[in-house]
Amino acid sequence: MIQAFGIGCTLLLLIALAIAVYKGVPILVASPICGALCLLCNGMPVMEGMKEAYIGEAAGFFKTWFLFFLAGAILGKIMERSGAAASIARFIIDKCGTGMAIPAVVIACGVLMMGGVSGFVVVFTLAPLSVELFRTADIPRQYILPTIAMGNAGPFMWIAGSPQVQNVLPMNLFGTTATAGFVVSIICTVFFIALSLIYLNTKLKKDRARGLHFESRPKDVILADEVELPSFFMSILPLIVVFGMFALLQVDILLALVIGIVVALIISRKYLKGNVMKTLMAGADGATTNMVGVAMIVAFAGAFKSTPNFQLVVDALLDLPFPPLVSAAIAVNVLCGITASAGGGLQVALPVIAQPYLDLGVNAVALHRVTAISCGVLDSMPHSAWLNATLEATQLTQKETYKMFATICIGIAALTTVLAIVLFSVFPVLCNF
Q: Are 145 and 154 contacting, i.e. CB atoms less than 8 angstroms apart?
């Protein structure tokens, strides 16, 4: 009874945290309150838990990601203030038309993701470019988040061959290869992107008919048409350098970002007009503010993970009375929702389910691809770490854009997961391709 009470309260607190974040309650207020109540309801020492498990989880996230946040934010800020992002945006719109704004952002995210660049880093690096593209194409600002999500929180983190943790972790635990379930992953990728583009373009036509346009925000850098901009090639060169150093030369991603920053500073020095230090500080300030907020979201998960009831939830999820692929997808999804992270949920679920499911004779390839695809559904709740980092980087709020984001990253992502399960179940031979 006590255990059920603790788990039930944790679920309610998780919902309360998501609602609070959606309503705009500062995460520095909502997260500690929910974390403390979670520990209390689960019978844990509150003060000790807050100082150890809660802050420990936040500190671990900070330790792992801060330098990447910092480097990505600085590179993005240099591209924004030097006019490099504006130059790339104008080139794409001039050559391809306004209809390419959304696909261009998706492709740029996909290229960096497939190159191994972390999703968080991609957000900070491409946010200024996305803003400029949408401003130039006059697409309402709220479309930036779901567009970035299509390339960042969608197929490119789980498609066969992806170097992202969502594809690598199942490979290591199931003994499969990075390209396991290649055909199914390609079918699911086409399905996800096509359905998402149809949804966004259909909604965009309606919103334009209602008179919606792009709206600038106080922190936007708006350059007049007559301002001299770096050339398209010089503008995109830092991104090419980062991708080439990391994906092709296998240089550490942090070093690749630093080299990208140096290249961007050399190219953009004259366009920054003596404001190099101010630009660096602006990037650092943005990274720090964002990092603290995201770390506080992750901290709540740390509080619950420190309780015995967390393991009970994991065990219950693994004992669901459904076919193995369905049970695995549900287990991964729930844990991703609790941890506010696709990678975090996989790291908890897969080590536990891998061997028992393999012992039951479940195909490892099918398990790999289904769990990789399914992790990107409930990690997209309002308290998602990635979501809130992206909102901060693009100066958007939950109320403005979450419904579109959820339609793609929860609705369409869930349908994609179902598609993968059906394909492997109806056509087992696809496990061989």
A: no
What is the residue extent of each domain of the chain? 1-43
pTM of the model: 0.82
Cα–Cα dist 254/340, whole Å: 24
Residue at 348: amino acid letter:
V
* Among 256, 258, 263, 262, CA closest to 236: 263
CB 204 within 8 A of CB 139: yes
Contact 74, 169 (CB under 8 A): no
pLDDT 10s digits, 18-75? 898 888 888 889 999 999 999 999 989 999 999 999 999 889 888 887 888 888 888 8
Q: What is the DSSP letter of 100?
A: G
Three-class SS state of 188: helix
Query: Over the stretch 317-363, which tens digit does the pLDDT of each residue have?
Result: 777 888 989 988 998 888 888 877 787 778 777 887 788 888 888 89
Nearest CA among 325, 372, 383 for reference residue 347: 372
